[in-house]
Amino acid sequence: MSMKHSFRFGFPSSLLGLFALSLAFLNPVAVHAESTTAASKSKASSKATKQKAKPKKKAAEADDGEFANFSQWKEVNAFIDEMVERNGFDKAALQAVFSKARYLDTAIQLIKPAPSGKPKNWQAYRARFVEPKRINAGVDFWNEHELALSRAEAQYGVPAEIIVGIIGVETVYGRNTGNFRVMDAITTLTFDYPKTANRDARMAFFRGELENTLLFARESNVDPFSLLGSYAGAIGWPQFMPSSIRQYAVDFDGNGKIDLRSSPVDAIGSVANFLKIHGWQRGEPTVFPATVTDAAKAEDLINQGLEAKFSPDELKAAGVVPGAELPAGLRYGLVDLQNGTAPTEHWLATNNFFAITQYNRSYFYAMSVIDLARAVRTARGQQ
């Protein structure tokens, strides 16, 4: 979807006027500036207004959502007041926006954690991503965008295969970028996240993404309802959340705008820039196979945060035996990939591996990116 769309295509003329009025007193911020947004400091209003009532879901209209009259929810109005004070939005314009937002029960259901008790299975997870169709699509993508990938590798130090692996895992090279209206999904998750142990933290996260969605739409002069993405609000070929677009996305095709929805070249540069900013080191490896000989000792090295902390001597003392010679001068983290009832795989991960986990905080995710990257590189070399 083109980033050229103006508010006028999604808003009635009266609402466009309100947005124009609110913009007239602001200094525009270029999307290219990789700006950061102010931290959310929400304070819920203590004044009781009309309490929200959850809309009834119609299964046939799950993707379109249900009318929820968000503009009447007291939490939404508190958020609007913050946006007016902190970012200079027009209150009436934002109320009109939220009156159009729809409640997505589909997003609520999909965001819920998997049922407890089901064992994790790395090989089953891997099979979803490292498979012939995705590998072949990756080869085609690499061949088509070889120049952009080489330029990104030279500029940011991230190998072409890793960029190809991420975009392949995320959207199968632009095939599955999501059909949910981002405003609907993020509004729903901000104000009615399902009851989970981390509900408050997740609502705060999505509240920040809602702010960034509106800021990004204003900076880009697009109708916020034109933004389509995943059920969690991720956008475009690389599935960046709105805050990541504003902070890390780059205009890599040089056409004067950032467009992760329509420009695979912008996606390539943006993925590489994200990884570099999150610690990717040029020329360093990602993982090495390992064997754990003393499970009790090794347990103390697992789940020690998303960073490489341990020297080879510390790993040896804990009974961890690398399956290949480790480069000198690097530190490592011990990664466990559980395989259901089958034996767990262990790997020694460098900080480049953990840079990938900043994209998605999952060992399974990072390893699937690496394995898809290797598979695509191998298949391309056999052409």
List the helices and strands and how they pair.
Elements: H1 13-23, E1 66-67, H2 74-87, H3 91-100, E2 102-103, H4 105-111, H5 122-129, H6 132-144, H7 146-156, H8 160-171, E3 180-181, H9 182-191, H10 199-220, E4 228-229, H11 242-248, H12 264-277, E5 287-292, H13 295-299, H14 312-317, E6 320-322, E7 333-339, E8 342-349, H15 351-357, H16 363-381
Antiparallel strand pairs: 1-2, 3-4, 5-6, 5-8, 7-8
Helix pairs in contact: 1-3, 2-3, 5-16, 6-8, 6-16, 7-12, 8-12, 8-16, 9-10, 10-11, 15-16
CATH topology-level fold name of the domain at 7-112 and 180-240: Helicase, Ruva Protein, domain 3
Strand order of the largest sheet: 6-5-8-7
Mean pLDDT: 86
For this structure, what is the CATH homologous superfamily of the domain at 7-112 and 180-240? Bacterial muramidase
Helix content: 40-55%
Query: SSE order, as H and E?
Result: HEHHEHHHHHEHHEHHEHHEEEHH
Q: Can you count the helices?
A: 16
Beta-strand content: 5-15%
Strand elements, count: 8
**Major sheet: size, sense and barrel closure?**
4 strands, antiparallel
Shape: globular
**CATH architecture term of the domain at 7-112 and 180-240:** Orthogonal Bundle
Amino- and carboxy-terminal Cα gap: 33 Å
